Amino acid sequence: MVQHDFKVQTKWHGGRNEVGNVTGDIINEQISIPSTLGGNGVGTNPDELLVSAASSCYIISLAATLERAGYEDISITQSSIGTAIFENGKFRMDSITHYPEIEVAPHNKESLENRLPKLLKIADNNCMISNSIRNNVAVHIKPTIK
Description:
Layout: E1 8-11, E2 20-24, E3 28-31, H1 46-68, E4 75-87, E5 90-103, H2 109-126, H3 128-133, E6 138-141, E7 144-145
Helix pairs in contact: 1-2
Protein name: OsmC family protein
Pfam families: OsmC (PF02566)
């Protein structure tokens, strides 16, 4: 078994309407409760960080999968939407939907269209965040090829 540790430190002082901080090797962001949930909306928040982690993991995994499949000179732009719900007195992330727009050379478009469903699954299965949230958060992928 291979193990990697990813370390962050969070700091918070005060009650729910204050602002904290999360730092790691690269990240250094203020955190607070989103304004849509009654907080002050300063910096980022755990919900946005979860969707960001899922989106960035998936796009990297998809790029690597396409590269291994022989597609070169690709460009991917992706939007991701996390949908949270409130049920049984608790908020939870219900689903995350990725909308990758994959740009390929015209001579590769038809080939990619035929292979894409399988490649999307491979990318999802190779994404650490997808693997971590699977069976708790539904992940949907709705691609477009340009």
